[in-house]
Specification:
Elements lengths: L10 H9 L8 H6 L13 E3 L4 H14 L3 E4 L14 E4 L7 E5 L4 E5 L4 H11 L4 E2 L12 H7 L6 H4 L6 E7 L5 E5 L2 E4 L5 H20 L1 H7 L23 H5 L8 E8 L1 E2 L3 E9 L2 H6 L1 H5 L5 E6 H11 L12 E9 L2 H18 L4 E5 L2 H12 L1 H6 L21 H14 L4 E6 L4 E6 L6 H20 L11 H4 L9 H14 L38 H7 L3 H6 L18 H6 L6 H14 L3 H5 L2 H7 L7 H5 L6 H12 L8 H4 L3 H8 L3 H9 L2 H8 L14 H8 L11 E4 L2 H6 L1 H13 L4 E4 L6 H5 L3 H15 L7 E3 L2 H15 L2 H9 E3 H10 L10 E4 L3 H7 L3 H9 L3 E4 L17 H8 L3 H6 L7 E2 L3 H10 L5 E2 L1 H5 L4 H4 L7
Parallel strand pairs: 1-3, 2-3, 18-19, 18-20, 20-21, 22-23, 22-24, 24-25
Antiparallel strand pairs: 4-5, 5-10, 6-11, 7-8, 7-10, 8-9, 12-14, 12-15, 13-14, 13-16, 16-17
Helix pairs in contact: 1-3, 7-19, 16-17, 23-25, 32-34, 36-37, 37-38, 37-40, 39-41
C-alpha cells in the first residue's frame, strides 16, 4: 500500500467530513504544517482534523474508508522516521483529545486520551500521588510527545535502562479500526470497548482468533527472529502473541506506527518514583571508548546511561553561552549515568565505587558526581536537545536524520560504533553521535547532502550499507523511533520472507481496508522518496538580513532558503513549560502558531511559489506569522537555532511592499517619530488620551481600546533627568544609550541609570539623539530601520571601546544582534561588541569590585524576551544574585505585549493569554511590598495592565543611589 494509492480526486472525503459535521481544515498554511514531521520527508495531506471525541474519530474513519483515502494519526509530530505524515487526512489528537481521565494510585494506572503529553502525565501523576508514583517513559521529546505517538513508536527515553519501552507500561489500549469497530486491546486479548456494541463484540472475537492462528502458524519464526535484543523495535512486535507471552495484544499493538488501528485512549502503568537520585558524568576520548565501559556501568544497576559527543556540547555553548553547560568533566565524549535508590548515602557510595572501577578500566579521562540541581538541569538539557543541536553544529554544515535510530545489544555497542565510523569515513560522511548507550541504541545525525542527486546517491548507498552493518552486529534498524519511511524498505535485510509475510498478514487482520498510514512497515515507499530537501527551486531570494551566507553556500542553498529550513521539526516550540518559546502556541495550542508551524509555511513558500515575488506575497505565510510576537525566544530556545522574529520582519518587508500596511505599523512602527512631537505637547496628548476621545484615537491607529495607554513624558523631564550627563564625551569610559521608549515615557529611568553608572566610579557619557530602529524592524519596515540604525552606529562608533549600556532591553538587542545582521558592516560589529543590557552591565560592575547599595531580600523579575534571547537566559537572575538578592521569583515567559503586538487591537486577547503563562502567576504570589522588576517598557505596561495599583521598577531604579524619593518621582507634564 504505497503512499500514492489515494484517489486523485480529493474533494469527496472533504465533502463527506463536512456532511458528517466534522470540521476539516485544508488551508495552505495548515497543509504545510502537517506535510512534515521531524524526519527528512514531506508529504502534503488532503486535510487536517482535530478530533474532540471518539465519535469524531469514527466519522473520519468512515469518510476515509468510503473514499479510499489514507488516514494518518498524529500526536506531537516529532517522528524522525516519517511515520506522522501521509497523503490523506491527518488526525491531530494533541489539540483536543488530551484529557487525563483518572489517576488510580491504588491500581497504579492512569486512564488518558491519546493526545496527552508525556511530561504532563508525569507531572500530574506525581502531584496526584504526592510524589510516590510517576510515569516512566521519558524520551527527549517528552514535553510535546503524546501518549498516542509513544504507543505508535514504542518510545523509550533517557531512563529506558531501568524502565524499558512504552510497551512495558501499557495496560490497555482503546482503538478504532478501519471498519469502525471500537476495541480494547489488553494483556489478555482483545474485547469490544462497549460490551453492548454487537459489531465490535463480533469483530473482537474474530480478530482474537485470527491472531492466535497467526501465532500458531509462525511459532518458530517468532521465537527465532523477534525479541532478540532490548531495543528491537523494527517491524511488528509479534512475539507478544506467543503462548508463553499470554497473547498480549496490547503490547503487540504498540509500535505499529498507526498502521493497524487508531489509538484513542489508554490505561498506562505507573511506577514508584525513587526517593534519591544522583547524576554521574563521565568523560572519554571518544564514543567507542565510552561504549567499551557500558558493561561495567550496567553492573551498578543505573536508571539511565546516556551519551553525547563534544559537537553537541560545543553547539550548545555557542548558541546559549558557556554557562549553558555546567558540571561537564574533561573529554570529547560524555556519558550521563543516573544512579538512584532510597538511601542517598548509599547512592553516593555506589557512585564513588563506579568511578573507581571505571578509572581502573583505563579509558575514563575524567568523571564526577553532579549533585547540584542547576548543573544537572543544564546537562540533561544538552542531551534532550541533541537532535536539534546536532542539525547545525558549531563546526559548520548540517546533519540530518535517516540513520538515527539503530540499536545493538549493549556488549556489542563498541564494536558496532567502531565499524560504523569506518563506514562513515568510506562514504566521506560525518556522524554526530548521542543516544541511549546503556540500551545499545544510537541516535546519529549524519552530514548527508539531500539537495543534490549526487548527495542522494551517497545517501542511498550508505543507508543500504548501514543496514547491512547493524544486522551483521545482531542489531535492529530501529531502536525507538520506528521504521516509518526511513527504514521500512530495509526490513528485508533484517527479517526473513516468512516474517515479512507475517507482518503483512498481521496488518491486514487489523486494517483490511488498507487505509491506515500507508507507506510504512509493509509495502513501504522507497526510503529516498518524498525527501523534503529535494526539488526546492534554486533561486536567489534577496534579503535585508545577512542570514549566514557562508553556511548557506556550504550547504548549496540560498541564504533565505537555508535559514527557513533550519527547523527540522523536533517541536520544542510546542512544549508547555520550560524556557520562553513559543508563547503564541502556549496560548492557542495550535500548530500554526508554533515556531515549527511558521517554519513549515516558509519552507513550502520557497518550494512552491512560482516566482519569488509570488512567494513574498504569500497569504498563507502572512497568516501563519500573524500571532508571532517577535519575542526572539526561539533564537535561544530552539535547538535548531530558528530566529522567527527576523524571518517575520524580513517577510513583512517584502509582503507589504506596494501594499497598504495596517494602521498600527504607522502608529506604533513610527512611534519614535511621534515621540519627538509628543514631548513638546505631552500635557495635551495625555489629556486627549484620558478622555473619551482617547478610544477614538486608539481605534483609528489600529490600537486596542482595552489597554490603558501610557502617559507621555515632556522634553523637560528628560532634560532634567540627564542634565548632569548631557554631553557624550569621548573621554567617557561608559556610554548610556537612552532609547526612544525611555525618552518618551519614563525619563526618570534614564536619570536613575546614569546615577548608578556614575556610582560605580565611571565617567558617564550620554547618547540620546539617535534611534536603533527597533519599531521599524518589528513591523518589517526595514529600509527605514537600516537608515536609522546606520545613523546610530555612525554616532556610537566613535573610536573608543567604552561599553554602551542600553536602558531598554529590546533596543539593546537590536543594536547587539540586528545591527550587524542588517547592516553587515565592520562598524556595526564594533558597536555590537560594546553593547550591554543594563542587567549585564550591573553584573560586570559587581564582578569588577563595585559595592552596590543595599537591595531587598525578595524581588520578582520579568526578564524581557529580547534580553533573554540575546544576552542570555539567566542575565537578570545572575545580576540579582551578584547584587545579593536572596530570593528571586522569575516570570520565565513572555509578558505578552512584545513591543507593538499587545497594543494592536487584533492581538490584545492573545497578549493577555500569554501574560497568564508566567507573569500573572508570578505577580499573584508576590507581596505588595516586594519590588517587581520590569526593565522592558512593554513588560512594565503589562504589569500595569494586570495589576493597575502595582508599580514596577527598572533595575536602575532599584539601585538608584538617590533612593526611594527618585524611584517614585512626581509625574509632572510640563
Amino acid at each position: 500500500m504505497h503512499s500514492n494509492f489515494t484517489a486523485p480526486e480529493h474533494t469527496p472525503v472533504l465533502e463527506r467530513l463536512q456532511a458528517a459535521g466534522v470540521p476539516v481544515e485544508a488551508s495552505g498554511h495548515r497543509l504545510a504544517a502537517y506535510s512534515y514531521d521531524a524526519s527528512n520527508y514531506r508529504i502534503p495531506p488532503i486535510g487536517v482534523v482535530f478530533p474532540r471525541s471518539v465519535d469524531d474519530v469514527v466519522a473520519v474513519i468512515a469518510a476515509c474508508r468510503e473514499t479510499d483515502t489514507a488516514l494518518i494519526s498524529r500526536g506531537g509530530g516529532t517522528s524522525m522516521a516519517g511515520n506522522a505524515i501521509g497523503p490523506g487526512i491527518v488526525l491531530d489528537f494533541s489539540r483536543h483529545m488530551n484529557r487525563i481521565i483518572t489517576i488510580d494510585e491504588s491500581a497504579g494506572t492512569a486512564d488518558v486520551e491519546a493526545g496527552v503529553v508525556l511530561a504532563q502525565l508525569t507531572r500530574e501523576t506525581e502531584r496526584a500521588t504526592g510524589g510516590s508514583l510517576t510515569f516512566a517513559p521519558d524520551p527527549s521529546s517528552k514535553n510535546r510527545a503524546t501518549i498516542g505517538g509513544s504507543i505508535g513508536n514504542d518510545a523509550c527515553g533517557n531512563h529506558s535502562v531501568r524502565y524499558g519501552r512504552t510497551s512495558d507500561h501499557v495496560h490497555e489500549i482503546d482503538v478504532v479500526t478501519s471498519d469502525g469497530a471500537l476495541l480494547t486491546a489488553s494483556d489478555r486479548g482483545v474485547r469490544a470497548t462497549n460490551p453492548s456494541d454487537a459489531y465490535s463484540v463480533s469483530r473482537a472475537f474474530q480478530l482474537g482468533e485470527d491472531l492466535k492462528t497467526l501465532a500458531q502458524e509462525n511459532l518458530a519464526a517468532f521465537r527465532r527472529e523477534l525479541g532478540r535484543i532490548q531495543r528491537q523495535v523494527s517491524g511488528y512486535h509479534l512475539a507478544n502473541l506467543l503462548p508463553e507471552n499470554g497473547l498480549n495484544i496490547a503490547r503487540a499493538l504498540v509500535g505499529t506506527e498507526g498502521t493497524c488501528a487508531v489509538v484513542v485512549r489508554a490505561r498506562m502503568k505507573l511506577v514508584p518514583k525513587p526517593s534519591s537520585a544522583l547524576l554521574v558524568c563521565l568523560g572519554y576520548a571518544d564514543v567507542v571508548d565510552a561504549a567499551k565501559d557500558i558493561e561495567t556501568i550496567l553492573e551498578f544497576s543505573p536508571a539511565a546511561v546516556e551519551g553525547i559527543d563534544e559537537a553537541i556540547v560545543d553547539t550548545m555553548r555557542l548558541r546559549r553561552g558557556d554557562d549553558s553547560v555546567l558540571g561537564l568533566p574533561l573529554g570529547k565524549a560524555f556519558l550521563y549515568v543516573d544512579l538512584d535508590g532510597d538511601d542517598p548515602d548509599e547512592v553516593a557510595r555506589q557512585a564513588a565505587l563506579m568511578l573507581e572501577r571505571l578509572a581502573a578500566n583505563g579509558r575514563l579521562i575524567d568523571g564526577c558526581a553532579v549533585p547540584d540541581p542547576a548543573e544537572r538541569a543544564t546537562l540533561w538539557r544538552v542531551r534532550e536537545d541533541g537532535a536539534g543541536l546536532s542539525s547545525r553544529p558549531a563546526s559548520g554544515g548540517e546533519s540530518l536524520a535517516g540513520w538515527e535510530d539503530s540499536a545493538v545489544a549493549p556488549p556489542n555497542l563498541a564494536a558496532y560504533l567502531a565499524d560504523f565510523r569506518t563506514l562513515l569515513d568510506n562514504y566521506g560522511l560525518t556522524g554526530i553521535m548521542y543516544g541511549h548507550f546503556g540500551a545499545g541504541c544510537m541516535h546519529i545525525r549524519i552530514t548527508y547532502d539531500l539537495r543534490t542527486e549526487e548527495g542522494r546517491s551517497v545517501f542511498r548507498k550508505f543507508t543500504q550499507a548501514a543496514a547491512e552493518l547493524v544486522v551483521r552486529h545482531g542489531g535492529s534498524l530501529s531502536g525507538e523511533h520506528g521504521d516509518g519511511r526511513a527504514r521500512s524498505a530495509l526490513l528485508a535485510q533484517m527479517y526473513s520472507p516468512g516474517m515479512l509475510a507475517a507482518f503483512e498478514e498481521y496488518r491486514r487482520l487489523w486494517d483490511e481496508a488498507g487505509i491506515l498510514n500507508p507507506g510504512s512497515i509493509t509495502d513501504p515507499d522507497p526510503f529516498d522518496a518524498n525527501l523534503a530537501l529535494e526539488g526546492v527551486p534554486e533561486r536567489e531570494w534577496r534579503t535585508h538580513f545577512e542570514l549566514r551566507p557562508v553556511d548557506a553556500a556550504a550547504a548549496g542553498a540560498d541564504p533565505w532558503v537555508h535559514a527557513v529550513q533550519a527547523c527540522i521539526g523536533v517541536g520544542r516550540c510546542r512544549s508547555d513549560s520550560g524556557g520562553v518559546m513559543c508563547p503564541s502556541f502556549r496560548a492557542t495550542g495550535d500548530e500554526k502558531d508554533s515556531t515549527r508551524g511558521r517554519s513549515r509555511a516558509l519552507q513550502d513558500m520557497v518550494r512552491g511559489a512560482r516566482t519569488i515575488d509570488e512567494g513574498w506575497k504569500s497569504e498563507d505565510v502572512r497568516e501563519a506569522l500573524d500571532l508571532c510576537l517577535a519575542c526572539k525566544a526561539c533564537s535561544n530556545d530552539c535547538p535548531a537555532g530558528v530566529d522567527m522574529a527576523s524571518y517575520k520582519s524580513e517577510f513583512f518587508s517584502h509582503y507589504y511592499e506596494g501594499k497598504l500596511r495596517p494602521m498600527s505599523h504607522f502608529s506604533l512602527g513610527w512611534l519614535p517619530r511621534w515621540l519627538k512631537l509628543t514631548t513638546l505637547i505631552s500635557p495635551v496628548v495625555n489629556l486627549v488620551l484620558a478622555s473619551p476621545l482617547g478610544n477614538v484615537v486608539a481605534a483609528a491607529g489600529g490600537l486596542t481600546t482595552k489597554r490603558k495607554m501610557p502617559k507621555f513624558a515632556s522634553r523637560k523631564m528628560l532634560r532634567d533627568a540627564l542634565a548632569p550627563y548631557a554631553t557624550h564625551s569621548k573621554t567617557a569610559d561608559a556610554v548610556l544609550f537612552v532609547d526612544s521608549f525611555t525618552k518618551g515615557f519614563r525619563p526618570e529611568v534614564a536619570g536613575a541609570a546614569a546615577r548608578v553608572m556614575e556610582s560605580t566610579g565611571r565617567q558617564v557619557g550620554c547618547e540620546s539623539d539617535v534611534c536603533c530602529g527597533l519599531t521599524w524592524i518589528s513591523t518589517g519596515q526595514l529600509d527605514t530601520a537600516k537608515k536609522l540604525m546606520s545613523k546610530a552606529v555612525a554616532k556610537l562608533d566613535d573610536g573608543s571601546d567604552a561599553p554602551i549600556v542600553v536602558i531598554e532591553p529590546s533596543c539593546a538587542a537590536a543594536l547587539k544582534k540586528d545591527a550587524p545582521e542588517l547592516l553587515g558592516t565592520e562598524a556595526a560589529e564594533r558597536v555590537s561588541h560594546r553593547i550591554r543590557s543594563f542587567a549585564e552591565a550591573v553584573k560586570e560592575w559587581v564582578d569588577a569590585g563595585w559595592v552596590p547599595p543595599a537591595v531587598p531580600t525578595d524581588v520578582t523579575v520579568q526578564t524581557h524576551c529580547h534580553e533573554y534571547s540575546t544576552f542570555g537566559a539567566t542575565v537578570q537572575r545572575k545580576a540579582l544574585a551578584a547584587l545579593g538578592v536572596a530570593n528571586v521569583t522569575e516570570a520565565t515567559g513572555c509578558c505578552g505585549v512584545a513591543g507593538n503586538f499587545g497594543f494592536e487591537a487584533n492581538h490584545y486577547d492573545i497578549s493577555m493569554k500569554v501574560a497568564q503563562q508566567a507573569l500573572a502567576p508570578a505577580l499573584a504570589t508576590t507581596a505588595q511590598d516586594t519590588p517587581v522588576l520590569a526593565d522592558g517598557f512593554s513588560c512594565a505596561m503589562q504589569v500595569k495592565q494586570l495589576e493597575p495599583e502595582r508599580k514596577s521598577l527598572h533595575l536602575a531604579e532599584l539601585l538608584d543611589p538617590m533612593g526611594s524619593r527618585r524611584r517614585h518621582p512626581h509625574h509632572n507634564d510640563r
